[in-house]
Design goal:
This protein is mostly beta strands. The chain has two domains: 42-166, Porin, CATH 2.40.160; 177-315, no CATH class. Helix content is 8%, strand content 36%. Strands 11, 12, 13, 14, 17, 18, 19, 20 and 21 form a nine-stranded antiparallel beta sheet that branches. An eight-stranded antiparallel β-barrel has the order 1-2-3-6-7-8-9-10. The chain has a two-stranded antiparallel ribbon with strand order 4-5. It is globular, with a radius of gyration of 31 Å.
Length: 316
């Protein structure tokens, strides 16, 4: 009987000792799910806008400066590039066409390693297939697959695009005032004088509004039917009201004759194309209309802006 009691006590002591030894298996935590992977790079590209410059007017060597560009990816793999293009005809010597946009199509996406993408797209007007290289999902470079297009026809139809991603929310120019920079020399020239100073008024549901202009703090006025004058209100348009593109007029108050040599009492309105940069406080601008006051290569005084540099106006 004593042996049985002793044996029972030893078994009990051994059980308690094992329970305290900590040999119970530690629970394994559930696996952490991997971050969601983007199903398709096209999903990222859809409805994005990319802004910056091309080599100039559709090509580099014959342009006065790199032209402002807005590239829009649509939902169906198509792409539209908005700019002031100048394309030299390959069939009619000397003939130049000047569309305000061209359309292309994504052919394939070659690779998407580490946030980069190599995309082949076709644009008939600029030499066919183009290679688009996107890095960090916010920088885009595009150039012809056939590099000979960069020198064909003096480089007029082939060029390199250097663009940045424009914020999806965009910016409205409504209620803002813009002007060019002042030259850093002793002359203190007002750069981009046609748009210095321009104020953008209210926009309606179609993205249209009116602009006002001041010179030396005084509003530019326009004649009205009874022989009087009123503050000039000139139409402009910003697609979507917050998009990157702005279609507007500049005002050349010093221009005394029209393109036919006829005298003018008032200044001249000059159509301008503008592209907002991702910061929202800078706008690249250009005009191909006779009478604009923008930099050109043969200028001896840089009164309109630095030679070969894309004109910029700044939000005040």
């Amino acid at each position: 009987m004593k042996k049985l009691i002793i044996l029972t006590v030893c078994i009990a002591v051994s059980f308690v000792a094992c329970k305290k030894s900590g040999n119970t298996p530690t629970p394994i935590p559930p696996p952490v799910p991997p971050p969601p992977v983007q199903k398709n790079y096209l999903d990222f590209l859809k409805n994005t806008e990319w802004v910056g410059t091309n080599g100039g007017g559709g090509g580099g060597s014959r342009a006065q400066y790199p032209e402002p560009v807005d590239m829009k990816f649509h939902t169906d793999s198509s792409i539209t590039i908005y700019s002031l293009f100048a394309f030299l005809s390959v069939t009619t010597p000397g003939e130049v066409t000047r569309p305000d946009s061209i359309n292309g199509k994504i052919i394939k996406i070659d690779s998407v390693p580490g946030g980069e993408a190599l995309i082949t797209a076709n644009f008939r007007e600029i030499g066919g297939d183009q290679l688009i290289h996107i890095t960090d999902k916010n920088k885009l470079m595009m150039s012809p697959v056939d590099t000979k297009q960069l020198v064909a026809n003096g480089g007029l139809n082939g060029t390199i695009y250097d663009l940045s991603l424009f914020p999806a929310a965009g910016f409205s120019v409504n209620g803002t005032e813009w002007s060019g920079a002042i030259s850093p020399d002793e002359y203190k020239y007002q750069y981009v004088p046609d748009l210095s100073t321009i104020t953008f008024g209210s926009i309606d549901g179609t993205g249209k509004g009116v602009t006002h202009y001041t010179r030396n703090g005084i509003y530019i006025k326009q004649g009205i039917g009874d022989g009087g004058f009123t503050v000039a209100e000139i139409s402009y348009q910003q697609p979507k009201s917050t998009g990157a593109r702005v279609y507007m007029f500049g005002y050349n108050e010093d221009y005394s004759t029209d393109s036919n040599g006829n005298n003018r009492v008032q200044g001249r309105l000059i159509p301008y194309f503008g592209v907002l940069l991702p910061s929202g406080d800078k706008m690249l601008v250009s005009s191909h209309t006779f009478g604009n006051r923008l930099p050109y290569y043969s200028q001896t005084h840089f009164s309109y802006g630095p030679r070969g540099t894309t004109p910029v106006i700044y939000k005040k």
